[in-house]
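Reviewers of the previous submission asked for a worked example of the structure-prediction workflow described in the proposal, so we include one complete record here. The input consisted solely of the amino acid sequence. No template or homolog information was supplied to the procedure at any stage.
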Amino acid sequence: MMKALVYTDTQVMQYRDEPQPQAGPDEVLLRVAATAICGSDMHAYHGLDERRVPPLILGHEVAGYVTGGELDGQLAVVNPLLTCGHCNHCLSGRTNLCAKRELIGMYLAGAYAEFVVVKAASLMLPQRPVEPWIACLTEPTATALHAIALIERISYRPISEQRVLIIGGGAIGLLAALVLSAKGCFDIDLAETNALRRQTVVEQKVAQVFDPLSSDAPAKGAYDVVIDCVGSGATRRMASEQVAAGGIISHVGLQNAQEGLDTRRLTLQEVTFLGNYCYTQQDMLASLDMLIDGRLGDLAWVQRRALSSGAQAFDDLHEGRVAAAKIVLHPDTMFG
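From that input alone, the workflow returned the following structure tokens.
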């Protein structure tokens, strides 16, 4: 048996004993060292993700130690996105578009537990020393990096020369600001409604922060690039208003599918709308390197807690009591 944090019902997480998984062919058993709470885990917690059916162990932003085999004891980062490996998208490196893609912590058991089984091909082995709580940030960093890479691919000018608005000061929004800063972009504004999170972003000194519900909101049509890291009707409306003619809206968040996008304005002013889903393997590798190199700052915006207190962490996030942009959970035996 092992200890695990299990999503059992809407807004109910239980810390309890679960059977320890066994690795099958082409799989490895990972002793979990650190797993971060993702916005999609919160979406499931709120009962809004029909793909994640309770009871289920959530968690896919994970780093841990290989148990058994030739790599026994090796720290590994997991690419949680599982794909077929032989369709046109996979063969061209766009694995995130595979029609048969799967994710641990969605239909398969995730990593809010002492152990998790993953595909051997999903392992990424850091080539230099890195702490597990930093390594587990690879996946959300890759999500932000992937979105910015798509923007750079179609931008008329280098990203460092453009004015950017980021909507949402959670982990993806803050990471997007940190990645942009690392690329030399310094004209960044960030919209966040939670005062605690606004202060966290301010402390990182990578963006000018404002409350979009206040009178401090900037003039409409002011930004070459708008990155929506929330993905609600309200934020799509804001993105439509704030993007400049000929600019780019990068839609990363998946909060809901409500209306809000002003397609008439997008058409009349030749605004490009980019959908962004997950990341590629190259995004993951590049993100791990950025984290190991320290190019994303001191990571003081990360809060670490024991897995046994995970239910409280979810409740704190739900109630907006957390200033941290990311909470990382450690199995109790690995915490301290």
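The chain has two domains: 2-137+299-334, 143-275. We consider this example representative of the routine output the project will generate in years two and three.
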